[in-house]
Design goal:
Strand order of the largest sheet: 2-3-4-5
Largest sheet: 4 strands, antiparallel
Helix content: 10-25%
Strand content: 35-45%
Order of helices and strands: HHEEEEEEE
Oligomer: single chain
Shape: elongated
Number of strands: 7
């Protein structure tokens, strides 16, 4: 003989898959706390800013040297005294009638400490090159 199945309500003590309201609130709180912590971790470096850079800015200001119109000869090193024991060695190499390649080295106490290259540089156009905290400005003119 078959007994009818009662599908209307689970028997007392039977397990269900639906969490209680307090369990849902606890899980929501933990997720919210984790998201807040993650947000703070991501934002903390932004709040710190660039405080490390501010101490180096006060150590020495960039130095700028204006050389004016400077006559260069192709493939001949031109040495310019920048003061403070620094010398700029400029060498021009031809590209076409209006432009050239400029190789520039910064020397201190006779030793090369920095170098840069400008390609293309324009003849008779103001030019600025930089070696870190030293800027050199001039207008290159090419000797025929």
């Amino acid at each position: 003989m078959l007994l009818p199945i009662n599908r209307s309500a689970p028997r007392s003590g039977a397990a269900t898959n639906v969490p209680s309201a307090s369990a849902r609130r606890s899980t929501d709180t933990r997720v919210s706390n984790r998201l807040l912590l993650l947000g703070l971790i991501l934002i903390a470096p932004l709040l710190n800013g660039c405080s490390k850079g501010s101490s180096s800015q006060t150590s020495s200001a960039p130095r700028s040297v204006e050389l004016g119109a400077l006559e260069l000869t192709y493939d001949v090193a031109n040495r310019q005294d920048l003061g403070g024991g620094a010398t700029c060695v400029l060498t021009a190499r031809p590209l076409d009638r209006q432009s050239f390649e400029l190789l520039a080295d910064l020397e201190k106490s006779g030793k090369k400490v920095a170098s840069t290259r400008v390609l293309p540089a324009r003849i008779n156009s103001p030019l600025e090159i930089s070696f870190g905290d030293v800027r050199v400005q001039f207008t290159p003119q090419i000797k025929p």
